[in-house]
Amino acid sequence: MEYLEFELPIKELEEQLDKCQIIGEESDVDVTETCKQIKKKLAETKKEIYKNLTAWQRVQLSRHPDRPYTLDHIKALCGESFLELHGDRNVKDDKAMIGGLGKIGDQSYMFIGQQKGFNTKTRQYRNFGMSNPEGYRKALRLMKSAEKFGIPVVTLIDTPGAYPGLEAEERGQGEAIARNILEMTRLKVPIITVIIGEGASGGALGIGVGDKVLMLENTWYSVISPESCSSILWRSWEYKEQAAEALKLTAKDMKRMKLVDQILKEPLGGAHTDREKTFTTVRDAIVKSYGELKNLSPKELVKQRMSKYFDMGVFKD
Length: 317
Prior knowledge:
Structural class: alpha/beta
Strand content: 5-15%
Low-confidence stretches: none
């Protein structure tokens, strides 16, 4: 278990509890009451820390190395039924963007999402979850296949942004993302989008247009990361916490501004502290969302989706 800086008081209490239990096991000393007191204090400390998280702390939780990634969610949701599909039929198979068919219960879905690595080797293999243009074109190919066979689409967003390299720009990164946004607005099957980690910039929007956009509690969704915003405005990364607050990037901010439809509650301490509970929450939300959309005709579905995005940013003095 890795701890973030603001979680250090929790780490200290958990270490005290472990030592107390070891003493009780290895000696005749009765430590029941002491352990009980430490557990009580630990529960209170956790509650106090996690109920008052800042925007920057939520950003840190969204990047926690133990947090479940896209493939973890897909395997938990679909089990052995998931069939990964590869390639954009043009350049190559982008390992940062994964997709394929899978079942939740008796219903088939087309799953698409960014995949990060869990160690140095896999992070390099997955390009740190940053897709090239071929990744977005693969995603669009899979969406079009889903549309052809009447299969709903589920997208899982977790990326620090689209890959900004020269070769990505040469192959049309901006066009690929813009094309996806256009095509997703008029796709004739339900699209359910779940932000499971980082939702940064056009990299997230490239698979982020949905009839239902759901956001896990300790995730973020913004045009730019706090570090990049800080470096542009203050020429330094030192102001990232201030930038995170100003960007209004948390799930609560997104829901208040009507940019997402629902916040999915995470276990106390984040999604990584109880993975099974998180997977169940996501599964139930996807099933419920599809239940609300499945009876709409393709025409109604597109009209409703278009209206939803046209209404964003409209305000009255």
